[in-house]
């Protein structure tokens, strides 16, 4: 091959110069940024990294390692939060400290939702989840000395933890579903629904570890005081005062168990969750990590589909916080004793977990709108029963409605994240951020309403949210879903 002549080189240089002169200043800036991104070495956070590389895992094994690792760590961390939150109205009733600091908790949950995607963009899903677990650990430690000046700052940490871990885990398993669906020969929509169902199951299983510790330790406290676990001589009125007379030694043992649970969750997240990498930063850090995520989150609000999803998400949050809180405080703690709170909450969580994973898988066979209508009707009937039932001490009557509400809430909690994965595949982070913010609205209302209004108001709000959620779901699904998505089993038979 002949070497290039000087005339050809000059021609090429002049041609490049003319092309460059035709670019606008903004185009030149983008060209330089793209070139610098393409040539510079990626940062540690931008690189993907996998755990358990000493083991040869197939794609299915790698996918489930991430889903199960995220789920188990989520279960442990959130179990400590749920158990602490369930006990607040009983242990910290003085001056409204229990419900009061939880309002701060959920306000932080909502406000930080705007910036949550910035954290995930900067750290990636794995390290965002681990950061949330450290915040949860700080909240557990603060409960050793519950005062306004300790629990309010701790509530800020708890709100940050709650916001990050919910969205981080949902986004992580959705990414795993999208990444491994071709290798597993699964439809992406079905795998997203299934993996989100598994995460929702683990979220609901988080009612077990912390509440199991609560039940065991408070039962031990009661037997050490010479009292029977089941009081056969219940008075006809609800005036139980066990919560105010608990032995503080057992309370400290309980708080220590929550701290250990958080530490175990952090270790599991480090060992089993893969780091999927982060997007390369383009432009200034302020614009990439703060301005762009916040703007993208606000833009998602303009989408009519997201507006309908926002109307649906407060239902499971309000139901869990307000109705469950009312039953735990006024029908269990005040009527049959605080030592039953953990066991009753655990039963609610187990039913919710089973419902989440089963209904998430049933979407492959059963028309999803039929499940929504059935569970919503059952939920409405149960809340109306609790509304009109005359309060009196009973071991059976509060327990059965809790189990039924757990089954219904598990299905509803899984619906919005699944729809986000299907309807917003390119904007998952801001979309998950928005629905978690609406979840925070439901939590905040759930804590605030019992403080400001009679118990009946909470039940009527819950019933109204059920109706609004069903209507919103119907409009969204029947407009956006194809016949194959609405009737999956019919088309599945045809394809076979």
Task: Record the SSE blueprint.
Elements: H1 6-21, H2 25-39, H3 59-91, H4 97-111, H5 113-142, H6 148-184, H7 188-205, H8 209-224, H9 248-272, H10 285-300, H11 304-312, H12 314-333, H13 341-362, H14 368-388, H15 399-423, H16 428-452, H17 455-480, H18 483-486, H19 488-495
Subcellular location: Membrane
Family: Belongs to the unc-93 family.
GO cellular component, one term: membrane
Structure, described:
It is a single chain. The chain has 496 residues and is mostly helical. The protein has a single domain, classed as Growth Hormone, Chain: A (Up-down Bundle). 77% of the residues lie in helices and 0% in strands. Helix 5 packs across helix 16. Belongs to the unc-93 family. Its main location: membrane. Pfam families: UNC-93. Keywords: Membrane, Transmembrane, Transmembrane helix. InterPro entries: Ion_channel_UNC-93, MFS_trans_sf, UNC-93_regulatory.
